[in-house]
Structures are given as C-alpha cells and as structure tokens.
Amino acid sequence: LSYPIGPKRAAYTHKISGMKVQGTAELRAMDATTTTIPLAVGLSDWTRSMHWRLTQWFWVALTWEAAGSGDRVGINLSHGVYPHPRGAVPPSAHKQVGMENAVWLNDRVHFIEAPLVVQGVPGQGHVAIGQEWRCYTEGGGALSLDLTFTPRGVVPSSVHAYVLSCDLLHHFGVYNGRVVVGGKTFEVVNLPGILEDHFAWW
After folding, report:
1. What is the pLDDT of residues 43-63, one digit of tens each?
2. Is residue 101 a contact partner of residue 78, using CB atoms and an 8 Å limit?
3. How far apart are CA 185 and CA 178, in angstroms?
4. Second label for 182, Cα 20 to 30 Å away, from 9, 37, 124, 162?
C-alpha cells in the first residue's frame, strides 16, 4: 500500500500474513536453548513513511493454522492511519474504513471494506494488562470479525526529547472471537497475538 500523507510525502507499507514458516529459534536466558520449528505460520510487516506531525494508531496482528481443516489464517488491522478517502463513514476516534485492513486465507488476501470499530483511542492508555480490549467490523457480511484481546505483558519503547514525544507499546497476549472469511467461519480461542498502541508527536 502506498498512501499519500501530504504534498511530496507518502507512506508505504507491505504486509503479508498466514505464511508458512520453518527454521530454528534460539532463546537466550540462563542457558542458550535452540528449538526447531518444523512448521508454523507467521507474518511480515515492512513500513516506511513520513507521517503526520501527530500520529496515533492501533495495530492488530495474529496468524494461525486452524485445527482440523489446516487452513492458514492471518489478520492485519490498523486504526488511526490509512483511512479510505471514500470510506463508508468519515474517520472518527473509534470507527474507520482502513485501507490496509485484511484477512489472509491460505495465501489469498481478502480486504475488509466494512468500518472497523475499536475500543478506546490510540496512545491514551486504553489498553491495560489483564483487561479485555475489543475490535469488530460493523454490519456483518461475507467478511467480518469480532475479536477481544487480553494483554499478558507489554514491551514499551518511549522517546521524549524537546519537541519529540513518542510512546510505542507492543502488547502481547491472547485473542478470542470469530472470523468469517472465504465462506468459512473460524473460532478464535486463546490465540497468541500482538496489539500495538502508538502515539507520536514528531
């Protein structure tokens, strides 16, 4: 997605989710432990931009392989950035048609055209460890989702210097809910994922 931010300014983001992943992972704590990953699913997020002076967003990311069917599902949602210029509703603090919102099913991407409704406002402390946070598509339809996220922990990154102020919070935890895509319904039960809560004045 290439998105116009302003005169001579743009954002570019490349997202892929639900990919097959193989390899090894090394965890370093008291002792180095190497674990072989025979088959898993993963996602990729590559973004470069010259954003607005004030930038706030939520970013939802999770992917899994459905038990029984073996379908690979990936979800990428954002709120606060990349609103559709001809969206069904004007962007608001809680509802937006986002141009990068999509669900992948077995390597095929399905774009979400319905408004995404989120709980709270990015960068305002509305995501807390142990408390449920919700997002859902409005209106149902052939592609819809309703998810709750319960943070188990957070990896913070903050910069506050002179005219710059940035708080980037990567919450990790579990998702629950339901996703309807490609004529199939998937129940989401305690699946690990990420919710990014971002505020920047740069």
Report:
1. 999 999 888 888 899 999 999
2. yes
3. 7
4. 37
How high is the pLDDT of residue 124? 87
pLDDT, tens only, 175-192: 999 999 999 999 999 999
Q: Max Cα separation, the chain?
A: 54
Q: Is 34 left (phi over 0), alpha (psi -120 to 50) or beta?
A: beta
Global pTM exceeds 0.85: yes
Non-local CB neighbours of 159 within 8 Å, separated by 6+ positions: 165, 166
Amino acid in the structure at residue 77? L
Contacts by residues 80-89 (CB-CB < 8 Å, ≥ 24 positions apart): 80/55, 80/56, 80/122, 80/198, 81/3, 81/11, 81/51, 81/55, 81/57, 82/1, 82/3, 82/11, 82/13, 87/115, 88/113, 88/114, 88/115, 89/115
3-class SS shares of the chain: helix, strand, coil, % to 5: 0, 70, 30
d(CA 42, CA 63): 6
